[in-house]
Amino acid sequence: MLIINLHVGSRFPINRKKLREAAQLVLKENNVDHAQIDISVVGKRKIKHLNESELKHSGETDVLSFPQHEKDNLYDFPLPEGVPPHLGDVVISFPEAVSTAKRYGKLVDDQLCFYLQHGMMHLLGYHHD
Question: Does the pLDDT value for residue 20 go beyond 90?
Fold first, then answer.
């Protein structure tokens, strides 16, 4: 069972279905069929606050990932029957997606999906240095 929780303010006009499908695709391609994830689309102040308070990085960013578990021990924690493990949270900056999409001639929803996929790969244990 996959549970994808979307948290999007009404002021952000996004294609929720497309974002869910992008999340499902990443999970399917990584052979994850039993998990839950929280995805939030936020504004400048929220992404800046999270970046500074949680990661100790200054300023805004495009996407943040907060994994619940390390990749190797995702299923080690006992859960009630039928409850999928929580992979973590992905937080995406809507204003950054708009700005980047405009700069590269892309659709905002496509840029949001790109950021989501990038953030989810971090939740699954893939990192870049």
Answer: yes
